[in-house]
Design goal:
It is a single chain. This protein has three helices and six strands. By secondary structure, it is α+β, with helices and mostly antiparallel strands. Strands 1-2-3-4 form a four-stranded mixed sheet. Strands 5-6 form a two-stranded antiparallel sheet. Helix 1 crosses helix 3.
Length: 166
């Protein structure tokens, strides 16, 4: 899989069931990773066609929520990603840059056309139904030690820093 075959500025967030802090439904391709009990990758739920970008005062540009494509086993996920981008390359709008996003292809052709074309012409494997994802538990209440009610909002922030000072 050569990175140069992918469109510029394509967004592919990856998360786990119950945590959508990456807001994957607003991205080109969203992946929800499922693992086995030993932590190895089992497969992914895949969502396609989201995006928040739009051009001011141009009604033909708009935000769109991604649609569920299905579940793919771990050994096929990279082939699926390459197939999705090849489909976008071949059928997406190559003339008008503001319409080059996958969300416009899905809007114009529909998820059924996208799935059928993907399987028939590119991926050539089964795409299963989505696996049920547990809902996110980012907020919680609990009893305080003094019988008051406490409210907690879970948040995780980190960054990667290459420094010898840490």
């Amino acid at each position: 899989m050569a990175i140069r075959t992918f469109q510029e500025n394509s967004k592919w967030p990856l998360t786990v069931p119950g945590d959508n802090s990456v807001d994957l439904l607003t991205q080109d391709i969203g992946l929800v990773l499922f693992t086995n009990k030993n932590g190895t990758m089992r497969g992914c739920n895949v969502y396609v066609g989201g995006g928040l970008g739009r051009t001011h005062n141009q009604e033909d540009t708009f935000a769109r929520i991604a649609e569920p494509l299905g579940y793919v086993d771990a050994e096929n996920i990279f082939d699926l990603l390459q197939s999705i981008m090849a489909l976008q390359r071949d059928h997406g709008d190559r003339e008008v840059r503001k319409h080059a996003r996958m969300k416009y292809l899905l809007h114009n052709r529909g998820i059924e056309w996208f799935r059928e074309t993907l399987i028939k012409d590119y991926f050539k494997r089964e795409i299963k139904s989505l696996i049920n994802e547990s809902p996110a538990k980012l907020m919680d209440t609990s009893d305080g030690t003094d019988k008051s009610l406490a409210f907690g909002l879970w948040g995780f922030r980190s960054c990667v820093v290459d420094s010898k000072d840490l």
